[in-house]
Amino acid sequence: MRHPDGLPREIAALDRTVVMGILNVTPDSFSDGGRWHDPGDAIKRGHLLRDSGADIIDIGGESTRPGAERIPEADEIARVIPVVEALVAEGIPVSIDTMRASVAAQCVTLGACLVNDVSGGQADPEMLPFLATVSVPCVAMHWRGPSTIMQSLAVYDDVVSDVCRELEQRLHALEAAGVDLKRVAIDPGLGFAKDTEHNWAILRDLDALGALGQPILLGASRKRFLGELLADPDGQPRPLEGREAAGDAVTALAATWGVWGVRVHEVAASRDAVMVARAWRGPS
């Protein structure tokens, strides 16, 4: 298992897929918006995710669900800083899920061990220069535009080839900005400017993503393409709370393939799936 450089020692030593627990401190995220908006509740949730087996807690203060509007920088900072500070102080590894360099910088200063930018550095021109100045790793996701318009951008000649080419362009941009690519993981952005079949096509061809040579993070948890797969006889997608087992199946298959990390809302079963995949694959 190749990890991006710069992770804490206990994570870098793992010979299995990393489990990243999602902690949205937002009022409007697609899955759990509002549940952990209060800092005290969010900190308790972070403890629960860690106790359930999360290796990293991924803290985000701005929703990126389809149609979501950007929020002011001050609001995002006010949401994430108390949670990052509290969890880091207790020795819990955290990453910051943000598209803003200023937010990332404050969180890294507090001790965040990874920057997860769903725009791959495209939403903020200061992000790539900032990443070049720090030693923590980052995740660059495939992104075609903001949440307000992203579903209109789900048009591809060949989704696997197009996503790989666009991620490669991001890697070139990161390198040109001075970021060591040994510190970079990539994320194909399931559900971001992609319809259901696009997501399945990407999952069927992880080898194509792997050919880019970077560790891969996947985030399938609770997403609509799973709900559509499990639709009822009337064609209604399965509700969010009924998608966990399908997400755990994606985790098991992806971890058996060898992805670096999975990003999930509920940790325990996905951690079990990762352990099964680790045994199935054998020592790396």
Q: Give the biggest sheet.
A: 8 strands, parallel
Helix and strand succession?
HEHEHEHEHEHEHHEHHEH
Poorly predicted sequence stretches spanning 5 or more consecutive residues: none
Biggest sheet: strand arrangement: 6-5-4-3-2-1-8-7
Please give the share of residues in helix.
40-55%
How confident is the prediction overall: mean pLDDT? Answer: 94
Distance between the termini: 6 Å
Strand content: 5-15%
- Broad structural category: alpha/beta
**Shape call:** globular
- Rg estimate, integer Å: 17 Å
Count of helix runs: 11
Q: How many strand units? A: 8
Question: Can you describe this structure?
Answer:
The protein has 284 residues and is α/β, with parallel strands linked by helices. It is 40% helix and 12% strand. It has helices at 9-12, 39-51, 73-89, 101-110, 127-131, 159-176, 196-204, 206-210, 224-229, 244-257, 268-281; strands at 18-24, 56-60, 94-97, 114-117, 138-141, 184-187, 217-218, 261-264. An eight-stranded parallel β-sheet has the order 6-5-4-3-2-1-8-7. Strand 2 (56-60), helix 3 and strand 3 (94-97) form a beta-alpha-beta unit. Helix 3 (73-89) runs parallel beside helix 4 (101-110). The longest helix has 18 residues, at 159-176. It starts with 8 loop residues before the first helix and ends with a helix.
